[in-house]
Write a structure and sequence with these properties.
26% strand, alpha+beta, N-acetyltransferase, 3-stranded antiparallel β-sheet, disordered N terminus, RA_dom, 5-stranded antiparallel β-sheet, Acyl_CoA_acyltransferase, acyltransferase activity, transferring groups other than amino-acyl groups
């Protein structure tokens, strides 16, 4: 029997719960449903150059996300619905290496399947990830990078208490992006 590539040596117990969601580490059975999310052109419209991803690319992405947990102590969570156990997508924290001008930084990101849009789930999940970053990992600031025109994601950044700090170009795809930021001091001031 071979060991799953998602078997984690430490910090496996990182699990966050919100009223409607469970944010947890990745499992083998998450690959196919996440690949379905990544294969939807409407979901991927605002991700890098808008290209969809297949199951092999999704598997590689999940393996990378899991290795980031090991090296950085944070990463992208699988997001599942508490009521059904269905995988909705992901949220979490990563280093935005694709945009060197903002480094050092940690970015909060999210991607949910289209059937989960418009219900406040991305905001609920991202807020839990931000709380984890500040309260459990002691981060000083968290950014969010959205493509210009992605109004839905910009609304989420506003709900998270972030403010616009710059507009620039993503060098990996040439698309314009906006960088939003929230400092730990601002976070503490809004949670009192």
């Amino acid at each position: 029997m071979t060991e799953s590539p998602f078997a984690i040596q430490n910090d496996w117990t990182v699990r966050l719960e919100t009223p409607r969601l469970v944010l947890r580490r990745w499992r083998e059975e998450d690959v196919a449903p996440m690949a379905a999310v990544n294969a939807d052109p409407e979901v991927m419209r605002w991700i890098r150059d808008g290209s969809v991803r297949d199951e092999q690319q999704t598997r590689g992405g999940i393996q990378t996300w899991e290795s980031e947990w090991e090296s950085q102590g944070f990463g992208l969570f699988a997001v599942e619905l508490r009521s059904t156990g269905e995988l909705a997508g992901f949220t979490g924290l990563s280093v935005p290496e694709f945009l060197p001008e903002v480094l050092p930084a940690v970015e909060v990101g999210w991607r949910l399947g289209r059937s989960h849009w418009g219900q406040g789930l991305a905001t609920e999940a991202a807020a839990a990830a931000v709380r984890f970053g500040f309260e459990e990992r002691g981060l000083e600031r968290i950014v969010s990078i959205t493509q210009v025109g992605n109004d839905a994601s910009e609304r989420i950044t506003t709900k998270l208490g972030m403010h616009l700090v710059r507009e620039t170009v993503n060098p990996t795809c040439g698309r314009r992006v906006r960088v939003f930021e929230l400092s730990s001091d601002q976070y503490v001031a809004t949670t009192r």
